[in-house]
Amino acid sequence: MAFSTRPLFNHTLSSPPLHQPKKQKPVGSQNGYSSGDEAQSLIPEATPQEDYSWVSVIIPFVFPALGGLLFGYDIGATSGATISLTSAELSGTTWFNLTAVQLGLVVSGSLYGALFGSLLVYPIADFLGRRRELITAAALYLLGGLITGCAPGLGVLLVGRLLYGIGIGMAMHGAPLYIAETCPSQIRGTLVSLKELFIVLGILIDAIGGWRYMYGISAPIALLMGIGMWILPPSPRWLLLRAAQGKGSVKEYKEKAVLALSKLRGRPPGDKVSEKQIEETLVTLKSAYADQESEGSLMDIFQGPSLKAFIIAGGLVLFQQITGQPSVLYYAGPILQSAGFSAAADATKVSVIIGLFKFVMTGIAVLKVDDLGRRPLLIVGVSGLALSLFLLSAYYKFLGGFPLVAVASLLLYVGCYQISFGPISWLMVSEIFPLQTRGKGISLAVLTNFGSNALVTFAFSPLKEALGADNLFLLFGAIALISLLFVVLIVPETKGLSLEEIESKILK
Question: Is 343 a residue whose pLDDT tops 90?
């Protein structure tokens, strides 16, 4: 059942605005997503948008986003840490001579943990709530970092990597949820995409020292994340969801939601504006749940609007992985080297060069996503991905004498990925699911993302050996064209819509 089109937390305040949002322009209907005789716009022109202060929205963003920073840091630190771990001089252990399988488990341990974390959170997301889930993720980050950094042997190290990975799975689920549900709708795209920038920033952090220091330095950041989330209030939308599900006193949950919204917006506790917003939204939710089971079943995600949302979100995170991103970056060193860049001989310097470029391009996406919208960035970015992959295939087939073509194609790929699939996929995942199944839906989307990442990582070497670089890039280019078709035909525009409007206008 669709919720009311009245937006949550989007009423204009009576006091003078600290930030005056831009007027939203109507967006044309998207491939049949608007129905009946509704206006041809997914963003009603008369919808009021919330006045806000950047000071009041930054704090509820930063602490959840630290979960992304710690995820990115693990990606960046692992390559350097494994070199130190397997070095007789630098390891400081008697078990440094690891086999290929053992080293692979160290590298991929956090990925397997993230997969398990995504599965773990599926049935308990609504019970935990967004805030408690992120506190749990911070605790797992802290515990995993400390155990890994202090590990006396390989077995304990792998346990630490697994725990850290479970923290990643929970953080990548809870962070976009909390940010999307607590921020004003007109800057939701900017803030959720900014979380992706935190991931890239984490990759770029260059930890100095041995492997114990590299892994252990994540612990104080995790502690800061946990303290910050402890101070922040629960998501008001989650509190109202629990009230509508009959999980406690409606009056008590309503009072908590009012206080939470007041705190998030920097208003006096229990102010009239927050109280009015919560009251109207609670009426809407109770009406929506009137003829439904209080909790819903585990299979609700595969029915009605939730299934449509999962097709959109799951498709985006799947194509995010299977369009070859890890594989293209594998060739970054040789491509830059062939063009005469001596720095390419050093894998660490190559990763820094690519990382800085990713950071800049993600910043562009963050700045423009709420102005241009999600679909334009996806369409332009994925088109660029396909073009760059075909150019790379051509380079390895018959343009080997023109290394600048490969360099330009590599940068085009990285840049287009970072303005499209990189940040926009996670943004759409955070906002497309109905409230009733949002926790379960995002859990499945995160599971799809990490699962496809593991599949691509596993299949890369056999595919490279069987097809060669030229045909491998050709295959990825064909997949990119399919993903472009998916974006054009299936993915809707959500710019400027509240989460309730997305459900009622797009998923109906």
Answer: no
Rounded to two decimals, the pTM is: 0.83
Helix, strand, coil tally for the chain in percent (to 5): 75, 0, 25
- Alpha-carbon distance of 212 to 395, in angstroms, equals 41
Q: What is the pLDDT of residues 350-381, one digit of tens each?
A: 767 888 899 999 999 999 999 999 999 999 99
| CA gap 171, 65 in Å, rounded | 9
- State the Cα–Cα distance between residues 101 and 107, nearest whole angstrom: 10
Residue 41 three-state SS = strand
Smallest CA-to-CA distance from 71 within 204, 208, 199 is with 199
Strand partners, 41: 28
Give the mean pLDDT of 236-258: 86
Which of 292-301's residues contact partners 24+ apart within 8 Å by CB, and which partners? 292/1, 292/436, 294/245, 294/246, 294/247, 295/126, 295/245, 296/436, 296/437, 298/122, 298/123, 298/440, 300/436, 300/437, 300/440, 301/437, 301/440, 301/441, 301/444
Q: Exposed/middle/buried for 368, CB within 10 Å: 0-12, 13-18, 19+?
A: middle
Token duo for residue 358: 């990713």
- Averaged pLDDT score across all residues of the chain: 83
pLDDT in tens, 189-228: 999 999 989 998 998 887 667 889 999 999 999 999 999 9
Partners of 108 in the β-ladder: none
Consecutive H or E run containing 417 = helix 403-419
